[in-house]
Known about the structure:
By secondary structure, this protein is α+β, with helices and mostly antiparallel strands. The chain is built from 9 helices and 17 strands. It is globular and about 60 Å long. The chain starts with a strand and ends with a helix.
Amino acid sequence: MHLKPDAPHLNWQGAVSLERKDDSIMPWRTPYEKHVLFPEPLLERSAMPAGVRISFRSNTTHISGSIVGQRDSGMLDLCCDGELIESYDLRGKNSFTYDGLSDQDKLIELWLPQFGRFQLRNLEIDDGATIEPYIDKRPRWITYGSSITQCRSAASPTQTWPGIAARNQNFNLTCLGYGGQCHLDSMVAMMIRDLPANYISMCLGINIQGAASLGPRAFRPAIVGAVQIIREKHTDIPIVLMSPIYCPNREENPNAVGFSLQKMREEVQAAANALQSYGDNNIHYVSGLDVFGPDLVDLLPDNLHPDAEGYRVMGRNFVTEVANNFFAE
């Protein structure tokens, strides 16, 4: 059975917008119709579908797809009823195939690569197979951050730390991890404001410190401003402000505008305190060191990004330190 990429049975979860490109559909993690208002480097990352899933229900035993081939892409994960079945390497490919699935009705989720673009031309399932849209009633979680949230070096899309946390907690994930591009852009804050959400986490500081894009005068006000924009529509849901994880070369060494990571953690916490004192009782601060601290330095091969095992540990720690404490109904 042939399915077009815009078939009504297919739910593109975690995508902010879908762009039709000739005979294919490409997911974006920004609203593509507003791209003229976004910085180009951020769009290079929002084109990469970290956390995006194509979901539907079916009893098919076979799934294959035709895609626009990409040289620099990653893995495509197939999950059935929440269980990871197989990871498929898409690098240089223009198609993928999964066979030998159960013939029972099941939730099928294709987790798209967290790095590299993805354009779907069509899907194929068994002739005569049932197919229904997946109506997702799980709590919606948005997480915003840097390459450490995009997780290029994770083993596969379900093994990113947001993927691990979302699957553990049964959340509907929207991952806004943009490698090198977490700079508290106003357009991103407005985008988060306009997306449905039950929980929001924002991992702030590492890109700003690395690029010296905000100094001590501007960083805390930018956090407060972003939260105030988000609160225009998400008036009382939990928002967690998380400071940077451990990075040995930047802990005490100031950047060009005098910011070390130790100082940035103080500023993130001060922003949370200010918002709380203003009456926001559902703002929470979490130190990144509680999620990935100096005891895990051996899992930082470049002294900045966790490796595949590091992201697994980070996902488990995020559940313990953040989700279990602040994202409970």
